[in-house]
Write a structure and sequence with these properties.
It is built from twelve helices and twelve strands. The chain has helices spanning about 20-35, 55-60, 70-95, 105-110, 170-175, 185-195, 210-215, 235-250, 275-285, 295-305, 315-325, 350-370, and strands spanning about 5-10, 40-45, 100-105, 120, 150-155, 180-185, 200, 225-230, 255-260, 270, 290, 305-310. The protein has a seven-stranded parallel β-sheet, with helices on both faces. Strands 10-9-8-11-12 form a five-stranded parallel β-sheet. Helix 9 crosses helix 10 and helix 10 (about 295-305) packs parallel to helix 11 (about 315-325).
């Protein structure tokens, strides 16, 4: 382990009301601290992604954005839910993360008064894709960092396999300012190479930098019951029905983890807004897990939980990448009539060996990025 007084300022999408967002941020901070550096999460929350405003942002992409009446109905239903969820996740962030004393809401604020650091780091998750009102945010490319400071990216992601042609030159210029580049998906390596930049490495998602024992430290009480766990991010009636039938055929009860209140009325017994420890415990102790979440998949692999992966449409590259890496593409559900997963169990030996080796490699790359003088 290094012993270094250099300070690392990390910007990532830590403030999305999502367990994966919070936990990948926590994991990267933990990994950097273990290497021996001081780290801090830049508390950057765009106005359009603040939980108090998120219903206004989402309605613009919704079929409810027809007229004043439908917009009012949507907001009256959704706003209280998002505010309740946002307040809970704000508690989780404050408990788990070392945040900057100042909260920033715009790139202009960051440029005017950037957090002090020796190295600036773009963290993981979908930081380089279009966000908010479908725009690329230069803040996540460290556009605010002083020109004389080192800039690195750890496990950054576009979330998709294609870039809008209109954005290519813009992205090329932003990416060209980094001293070190690492990304999360193999598709991201290809995307960056297509922009003419080839010095990029693929590394593990931060959640996989910590082993199951380290994640166990956040679990206060282990769940003891036998159940099928459904952790679903995207609306998908076929997935709902599959989970219900899967639980019935396996002779187990179905439990649904959800931070969204309106989903408590769907199939399965709902566990609404579980704590971070409960979230991890439910995944760790499930007999089977059905998920369309990248981080749900990553935690299932880390805990060696039997899982079935439902690829989530246009962002499926995230799930595919980790499944290809670990030799677990056979856990992808290709038919909602396929219940063979009940009997066909995962032998995690290869996946465990692969993750263990990639964890060593990824931590070595992270250490080198931090240690290496500019």
């Amino acid at each position: 382990m290094s012993s270094n007084n250099k300070k690392i300022a990390i910007i990532t999408r830590h403030a999305i009301s999502n367990y994966g967002s919070v936990l990948q941020t926590y994991a990267l901070q933990k990994a950097i601290d273990k290497i021996g550096f001081e780290s801090e999460i830049i508390d950057y929350i765009r106005t359009d992604e603040d939980y108090r405003n998120i219903s206004d942002t989402l309605i613009k992409k919704s079929s409810w954005n027809k007229n004043a009446v439908t917009r009012l109905i949507y907001k009256s239903i959704q706003s209280p839910e998002y505010i309740k969820m946002g307040k809970e996740f704000e508690k989780y962030r404050k408990a788990l993360l070392k945040l900057t004393a100042k909260r920033y809401s715009s790139l202009e604020e960051l440029k005017h008064n950037p957090p002090d650091a020796d190295i600036y780091c773009t963290g993981s998750d979908q930081v380089w894709g279009t966000i908010g009102n479908d725009e690329i945010d230069p803040a996540y490319f460290l556009d605010f960092a002083p020109a004389n400071k080192k800039k690195i990216a750890y496990a950054a992601s576009f979330g998709k396999t294609k870039i809008n042609t209109d954005n290519k030159e813009f992205l090329k210029n932003l990416i060209g300012t980094y001293d070190w580049l690492t990304v999360r998906e193999n598709s991201a390596v290809e995307l960056i190479s297509s922009l003419g930049t080839y010095n990029v490495s693929q590394v593990l998602d931060p959640t996989l930098l910590l082993d199951s024992g380290e994640w166990n430290t956040l679990i206060e009480n282990d769940i003891k019951n036998d159940y099928v766990l459904l952790y679903q991010l995207h609306s998908n009636p076929q997935m709902d029905n599959f989970a219900k039938q899967f639980a019935k055929k396996s002779g187990l009860k179905l439990i649904r983890l959800t931070p969204l209140f309106h989903r408590v009325f769907k199939s399965g017994k709902a566990v609404y807004l579980p704590t971070v420890g409960e979230f991890l415990s439910y995944i760790k102790n499930a007999k089977y897990m059905i998920t369309d979440s990248f981080h749900g998949t990553a935690f299932a692999i880390n805990f060696n939980t039997q899982f079935i992966d439902v690829l989530p449409g246009e962002t499926k590259t995230r799930n595919q990448s980790i499944l290809e890496l670990t030799g677990l593409t056979n856990r992808i559900l290709n038919s909602f009539n396929d219940f063979s997963f009940i009997e066909n169990k995962i032998d995690f030996r290869y996946a465990n060996e692969k993750i263990a080796q990639e964890r060593i490699n990824s931590l070595e790359i992270l250490k080198k990025m931090l240690d290496d003088s500019r």
